[in-house]
Every structure is written in structure tokens, then in C-alpha cells.
Amino acid sequence: MTRSRLEEIKKLLNQYSYEYYALDQPSVSDAVYDSLMVELKSIEAAHPEWITPDSPTQRVGNKLLEGF
After folding, report:
1. What is the pLDDT of residue 22?
2. How far apart are CA 41 and CA 20, in angstroms?
3. Nearest-CA neighbor of 19 among 67, 65, 60?
């Protein structure tokens, strides 16, 4: 578990969330997303000093598509 892996996972999860919620065009399965989220939570649990406000684990919701 490295800080660079944490940043990589955060970037991926943010991209996948955007594709899912804003574009309605997910590029990965829910299982892949969930697996990355579990890994991120594990890293943050081991290194709480690495948790930042922009982490996907700190987000409550996402911007919805137009029309909702």
C-alpha cells in the first residue's frame, strides 16, 4: 500500500463515478467499482493521515444527470 496507489484509486473512482452518474455510461462493472472502494477504505484505515476531503470515501452523493 503506497500513497501513489491511493491517489490512483481515488482518480479511478472519481472517473468511474462521473461516467456513471453524469454521463450514464459506466465503463466498469459495479463489482470493479466496489472492489476499488474496498481497497481505498483499507488503505485509508491503515493510513488515516492520508484521508482528504476529496476522497470518494468522504463523498455523500454525486451530481445527477439533467432531467432528474
Report:
1. 87
2. 20
3. 65
Full-model pTM: 0.84
Identify which of 62, 49, 50, 66 has the alpha carbon closest to the alpha carbon of residue 13.
62
Walk along the chain (68 residues) in steps of 10 and give the mean pLDDT of each run.
94 95 94 98 97 91 58
Q: Which CATH number fits domain 3-53: 3.40.50.720, 2.40.40.20, 1.10.287.610, 3.40.630.30?
A: 1.10.287.610
User: For the stretch 42-66, what's the b/e string if a residue is b when 16 or more beta carbons lie within 10 angstroms of its beta carbon?
Assistant: ebbeeeeeebeeebbeeeeeeeeee
Quick one: pLDDT at residue 67? 58
